[in-house]
């Protein structure tokens, strides 16, 4: 019990010893009597004991949770599925601090067929047990309204709230409204339609709401042929228009397969402390509902546990009783009379792929919304991930990356690029001409520029970076650390080296490199800074090299020295422009005698060119 709070350790030991080896739900309370965690277990005794087992390695988050536990309570149930359902209900009720939090606590709308004479069909969020029929709930309001619009186009369903009892109709209490005059209602309120005729529309509407579109089409075609056989062509045409409406609706809905019946499909994705789940409801081979949720992770939960929790919660919320559930990976749960399928090919695999595409869109859409609310959120998340990956005490809001370049020991230069909040800060970039190193010595060059950069920042009392990236392996990193140590900055700034071949990350004094996931944002930022330092350094090297070549070309002219060549380049920018200038321009810059030398030199060149 070394991980538990010593104040409560003895009491917790006694509680654990009394726990049964049966399925159930356990609840952890803190010293304020607040539930901080709810969990399920096949065996309460072994599961709860595992939290306090000294031999078992736990992450920092679970260790912190255990230290908060002051009391344990359990509820014993008959089966594991009972435990799962109870756990889900308790989490929704108490919202414990350390349980996964599903960001989806809204109520969903239903389509109601009211228990009344000449029933109305409308949407509602409240279920009243008065004998009315309810279909749903609909996770997508758009899908629900599309179905309502279809029903109202197909059938003359009243929209008024009048009490159309036989007595009221016979008494002539009502007058027809605009809906009657525009042909959307047959005037049941004044006895123009019988309740039996109206009820036929209601029964067909029920079939549509159950997803039995093909059955409704078959009935309508039978009616159409009957009217056509009786020479009632206007009625037959009206039925044909309804069939066309249904076919248009079907073409817009996603029909996966004609032989698939009722299936639930779940896909899963996770990034950092967030998980995402998409749900598709398939009825008679067509997708009739789609829903995605965001889940906040609290204790580095296993993906199978998170998805199991989401499946139970979503099926409860949306009243799903499908006998088959498609999932992307094996789960640790089983549900009575429900088959879990991990498809490898065919229509079921296509369904899973469709769910995954919906989930990816949900993630992107959520990210766009969050970026609009908090533009810095993306940067904050990356910085937090970098802090964790590179084992830093603080997030690297300010990082600097160094690279050096030379050609066979000549024109040695170096570059420093600066990133602030994961974005390149180009106004803070710096070039360095190597001053104290002779020949090609990358290690000594790196030591020089690191010392020059940070001795100046210290002298000017400017902000230091939290992270320094050295383009190179252990040798360059060691050279940089020599200067960092001399300046008294060792341990105050995180310094890493990145080796190009395998993208290995080295830390000072550690021979074993760190390999970061190739797709991680941490590595992408490091690579971006490294590539930017290389580009910036090469640009400076080329300019210096070209300038040196031009300068040497001018100093080849007898009587033109380094100083004169430098002044001419400052004025005319290039030898081509200098050559194109006239004698007066040369004379104004370097005097009459040196202008004559230029005239003689360029005159000879022109003769040679001819």
Q: What are the SSEs and their pairings?
A:
Blueprint: H1 6-18, E1 24-29, E2 35-41, H2 44-51, H3 60-68, E3 71-76, H4 80-94, E4 101-102, E5 110-113, E6 121-124, E7 133-135, H5 141-154, H6 166-170, H7 178-181, H8 195-209, H9 213-229, H10 233-252, E8 254-255, E9 263-271, E10 274-283, E11 286-296, H11 303-317, E12 324-326, E13 339-341, H12 346-373, H13 377-389, E14 398-407, E15 410-420, E16 423-424, E17 430-433, H14 442-459, E18 467-471, H15 474-486, E19 494-499, E20 504-506, H16 521-555, H17 562-572, H18 575-580, H19 583-590, H20 592-609
Parallel strand pairs: 9-12, 12-13, 14-18, 18-19
Antiparallel strand pairs: 1-2, 1-3, 4-11, 5-6, 5-7, 8-11, 9-10, 10-11, 14-15, 15-16, 15-17, 19-20
Task: Give an account of the 3D structure.
This protein has 610 residues and is of the alpha+beta class. The chain is built from 20 helices and 20 strands. α14 (442-459) runs parallel beside α15 and α19 crosses α20 (592-609). The chain folds into five domains: 6-99, GIY-YIG endonuclease (3-Layer(aba) Sandwich); 110-211, no CATH class; 263-372, Nucleotidyltransferase, domain 5; 385-543, Nucleotidyltransferase, domain 5 (2-Layer Sandwich), CATH 3.30.420.340; 556-609, Orthogonal Bundle (DNA polymerase, domain 1), CATH 1.10.150. Strands 4, 8, 9, 10, 11, 12 and 13 form a seven-stranded mixed β-sheet that branches. Strands 14, 15, 16, 17, 18, 19 and 20 form a seven-stranded mixed β-sheet that branches. The chain has helices at residues 6-18, 44-51, 60-68, 80-94, 141-154, 166-170, 178-181, 195-209, 213-229, 233-252, 303-317, 346-373, 377-389, 442-459, 474-486, 521-555, 562-572, 575-580, 583-590, 592-609; strands spanning 24-29, 35-41, 71-76, 101-102, 110-113, 121-124, 133-135, 254-255, 263-271, 274-283, 286-296, 324-326, 339-341, 398-407, 410-420, 423-424, 430-433, 467-471, 494-499, 504-506. The protein is flat and about 120 Å long.
